[in-house]
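Sample A.
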Amino acid sequence: MADDEGIEPTNCLHRRATARPAALAFALLIAPAVSSVIDAIMDAVAARGPAAIGNLGLVSPAWAQPAALTPSQSEALSAYDKAVNDFKAILRARRAQIDSNQPLPNLPGQALYLARNAMLSAYKDLTDALPAKIGRPNKFGIPPAYFDADNEPLLEEYANLFKVMQAPPGNAQNSNTPFADVVELATAIARAKGLDAVHAQAAGRISLGIFFAETNGTQNMGNARSNKYKGSLQTGVSEDQSGQRQWAAIKSSIAAFDPALNARDDKEEARAGNLDHRYNHWTAVRDGLMNAHADVFPHIPAIVKALPNPIDQMKLFELIQIIPSPTKSALKSANLAAYRVSDPTVMAYLRNNSIFTFGRADRAKTSATYGEILEAMWLFNDKFERALSKFNEIKAQRKG
């Protein structure tokens, strides 16, 4: 789930017209995953059985005390060992609660999220102090300076716990074609906003990236780090209602050029009935896109020109989730990549969503250009790459 101008969960869905509470999405200081709730690393892990963390030693064997450390290096090593042990402890505690069917605390993913962030941050501080400690690549694609690959089982367990805690509610209304739904809705909305076929297709691709960023592609997901943001695009109730109103305003124009999509929409509206629209995948995606992104779709031709990499395009639209006002200002500027933000609140929102979050050096930044921000969004890379792959798969199926 990522956040927008809020601070509650990568995980990520994470926002929109107003600032979110500082609690979600990928951050060291907060509380969404929020946005969702799920966070970027967690989303990179495939579903597996509970990781065997119970027998791991309290201190990583990779960190046997080296000789002749300076006081600052010794302090960094001790801080990292403590962060790893703290992360293991909360993983064990939450696993024991789940396996024994004990009641979970409010926002059960928050302590996990903060402990994970603390571990990554302490590792970056350690490798800054002792560059020789940078190890081998890891399966999650996290830069090795931020993560010790020997601790991969910890992140696997982290992901598995979130999957349990954020499972969709029993009354959620799934779609048999969740990814195609996102692409079709975004493409139709973009056409209604005046885009040509090529750029409307780009809107579909970008929107699929948002779905992966917010929920890792899990439809109707809950949120273990937020009591407010839920569903396939991790929206709040007011955001969903705003999206419903905006959809109603363009529905007739979409019906004129895509009657089949309009018929599907009528069917899903009837199916949802009095259900929270965030737990019907179709209506959740539709309303979320209308609330936060539809008005930005007309900028896609300029965005594609300024950012030819599809992953960067997805990152920019995710920033509409996290810091909408500055991002819209950047889009209106003469040079998107060079547009600089320095407001402390904006920088805090970025950190709360795992951007400039890990290690003292990253957190010390007081300003950044959009080019630097996009580069710092490395925790989103895996999600967006999988979204791009899924989009290409859908595109190939349609051609076939």
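Sample B, a different protein:
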Amino acid sequence: MLLAKVIGNVWSTKKLDNISALRLLFIQPLGKDLKPAGNVLVAADEVGAGFGEMVIVTQGAPAMQAFSKAELIPIDAVVVGIADNLEMAEDAAAKKK
């Protein structure tokens, strides 16, 4: 999983039937210092994340199973939570730099 910031919406009038109800967002992955790290991604969202919010994202096979355990859907990333608060020990942050 990773932390990311919602930076926009993706509007698509035509999608595969099994993803037609999914809302899509542009997200910017964040590094340990909470600054942009890596390429912008498109992620499906069913938790209702809004512009500028920090979100928790899962990718790969877990993302494909996030909405239905019985059927895999063709997505690479899913917003699985909205981060309300973050807390990291100063020592841990310093060691990771």
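Observation for Sample B: Residues 2-96 form a domain with the OB fold (Dihydrolipoamide Acetyltransferase, E2P) fold (CATH 2.40.50.220).
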